[in-house]
Design goal:
The chain has 175 residues and is an all-alpha fold. Helices cover 77% and strands 0% of the residues. It is built from five helices and no strands. Mean pLDDT is 82; it is low at 18-30.
């Protein structure tokens, strides 16, 4: 395998650009054959399928982690609300801690919801010290979900580029 084909294969597998942008034009002297180009496209396609599976698996893992944390919160007061109530508490906490939001309204909402979910026989500070680490863990999961959303956008852009490469390849072959 020549060096140019090896470099183009790495570019294709890593998703660093389309084959057109990499200057792959079959038929020119020194360029790869249509068969080799097809093979690169197939390799890119397989890489995209694997990436999609990985992204989907990561998404499921994050949802499972979020559910587990919400259940841990709910276990702090099983009679004091539903999982949805605890999720609402987390959303209020998230908005309260978000630097872009108007903090005062969300802080009040968070404190009111926290008070409503606290068992009557539990000290306010002790309860808060158990709840806040779990809310911070949920916050970390949210950041991972946000990053994963961006990864999906990038993945979809790569898919579009691959589709363009396939179309250009098929036009070269006369299909």
């Amino acid at each position: 395998m020549n060096m140019r084909l090896l470099i183009l294969s790495l570019i294709a597998l890593l998703g660093l650009g389309s084959m057109e942008a990499a200057g792959v034009n079959a038929g020119s002297s020194g360029d790869i054959s249509l068969g080799q180009e097809r093979q690169l496209i197939d390799q890119q396609h397989q890489a995209m399928e694997q990436e999609e599976l990985t992204l989907a698996q990561t998404y499921r893992q994050l949802l499972d982690q979020k559910r587990a944390l919400l259940e841990q919160l709910r276990a702090l007061n099983p009679k004091g609300g539903t999982t949805k109530d605890w999720n609402d508490l987390w959303e209020n906490y998230h908005k309260y801690k978000d630097e872009d939001e108007d903090e005062e309204d969300y802080e009040d909402n968070y404190k009111d919801k926290l008070k409503a979910l606290r068992p009557k026989d539990v000290d306010k500070d002790a309860f808060k010290s158990k709840v806040e680490p779990l809310l911070k863990a949920l916050e970390a999961i949210q950041k991972q979900q946000d990053a994963l959303s961006q990864s999906w956008v990038t993945h979809n852009q790569k898919i579009q580029t691959l589709d363009q490469d396939k179309k250009a390849h098929n036009q070269k072959r006369g299909k």
